[in-house]
Fold:
Amino acid sequence: MKRFAIAAALMLALAACETTSVGGVSTPSGPASIPSSPLELGDWRNATPAATLAAFERNVASRYGAGLELSAVSGDLRRQDFNCAAGPQNGRGDPPEQVCRRTTSASGCTHTWQVHLFDEGGNGRLARTRGLYDRRCGSDGLLGGPGR
Structure:
C-alpha cells in the first residue's frame, strides 16, 4: 500500500510539471474563408505578455485556414493596420514568405504583434502561421527583459 501511495504521488508530481509552449509555428486550423470580424489581438492592456501571446497565437491559427491564398491573408492583415513585407531570404532555415507587423504605443509601453506567413511549396497558398507578440516598457530590453 505504501508503494502505491508513493507511485501515485510521483505520477501527480510529474503531471504538474507539464511544459507549455511559449510560441511557435502552428498549422492553421481556420476556415476556408477569412471571417469579416477583426483579428483579436488578445487582452494586451491587462494580461501578461505570455497570456497575450498565447491568445494571439490561437486567434491567428483559428482565423487563417491552411490553403488560403497568401495575398488574401496579407490583405486581411493590412486592413487591420498590419504592415506586410517579404520575409527574410537569407538562405537559412525555412523563412516565412511574408512578415506582417503591427505596433501600438500605450501607457508608456510599445506593443508589437507579428504574423509570419509560410508558403505551401511556392504555390502562393498558406501552409502555416506563426503569431508573435512583444511588449516593451520604459527601459525594458528585448521581450521585457532588462535593458542595457
Remarks:
- The helical segments are 2-16, 49-63, 70-79.
